[in-house]
Amino acid sequence: MRKTSIYILSLLGLILASCNNNTYSNALKEEEKLIENFIKRQGIIVVKDQPSTMEEWGDNVYWQVPDKDNFYFHLVEEGDTTQPALKVKDWVNLQYIQYTLDAYADTIRFWNTEDYGETNPQIQYTSPNMMPSDNSCMGWQIAMEHMKYSGAQCKIICPSKLGFTNQNSNVIPFGFDMKIKIKRF
After folding, report:
1. How do residues 48-101 score in pLDDT, each as one tens digit?
2. Is residue 158 part of a domain?
3. What is the reported pTM?
4. C-alpha dihedral sign at 49, 54, 55, 59
5. DSSP per residue over 51-113, as a string?
6. Summary mean pLDDT of the chain
7. Which domain holds residue 131?
8. CA–CA separation, 10 and 100 (whole Å)
9. Residue 75's domain is classified under what CATH number?
10. Residue 8 belongs to some domain of the structure
11. CA atoms 102, 32, 165, 24: torsion sign
């Protein structure tokens, strides 16, 4: 009798586990749908080739960065092109607004490194192919690569794989509005 009960409970557990749709694969599919719906709701125009002039960026043109898992980039302001461009190991002050992409988008974080003065380390541009060692995320590194100049502003749609570590495990995409100021020492 006891073996039969254990067998039935085990079988029931397997059936319930197989009905569970909360797999990582399903979460990634849901994330992709969330991003697609955000793009539709916002009237975003997605292009496959990076615009080369500010006029080509338009008001709502987002470039789908190749090989970056649904990462979308929109250049809002080019920045000060008379100054040297951003290079690997440069330090930047970063201002950003982070928000959710669901139907009831909510700003969840606003941050300005300049608010913290000398006590807060700046964000270091490492390269979009290297995991940052500071408190930034891969999505920021990709965005900074394409912002290039101090004073540049952009908007990005950042999937969880390129977000902060806690976003990776939770499969939560975010939008960011960013502005950088390159620190020259």
Report:
1. 999 999 999 999 999 999 988 799 999 999 999 999 999 998 988 888 888 989
2. yes
3. 0.80
4. positive
5. -SSHHHHTTTEEEE-TTSSS-EEEEEE---TTSPPP-TT-EEEEEEEEE--STT--EEEEEEG
6. 81
7. 23-183
8. 40
9. 3.10.50.40
10. no
11. positive
